[in-house]
UniProtKB/TrEMBL annotation:
Top-level taxon of the source organism: Bacteria
Annotated organism of origin: Micromonospora yangpuensis
The STAS domain, residue ranges: 23-125
Lineage of producing organism: Bacteria, Bacillati, Actinomycetota, Actinomycetes, Micromonosporales
Protein name, as recorded: Anti-anti-sigma factor
Amino acid sequence: MSRARNTGRIDPARPPATELVEVALTEPLDLAAVAELGAVLDRVLALRPTRLVIDLTSCANIDAAGIALLLDAHRRMFSLGGRLVLRSPSSRLSRLLQVAQVDQVLYVVPARAVASTGHDGTAVGSRAETRG
């Protein structure tokens, strides 16, 4: 008898449910925010977006727990065949990402490089609610 093994990978043959989802962080991405943002990202990734944009314009700080969450979201998007984009980090956040060397793994762009389309499924705020 053979058993199917759940590898945790998503079937890449299944098309994405949505093209773009944006999440705008309005608070520091620290240990206190990771659980809530993690839950938001779980809901977002269930949509199987082709691209997930996390807007860091209003995010004042990020700690190791926040970086770990972003790396996990990147890994999960990669497994879906999608891309995680970090948009508009401040110069301070950009420097933190460089020091942690995650800028070599994560795709980081200034605001003008990623067009905002406002598709359904957009999530706003680190205490995000989805808009439809």
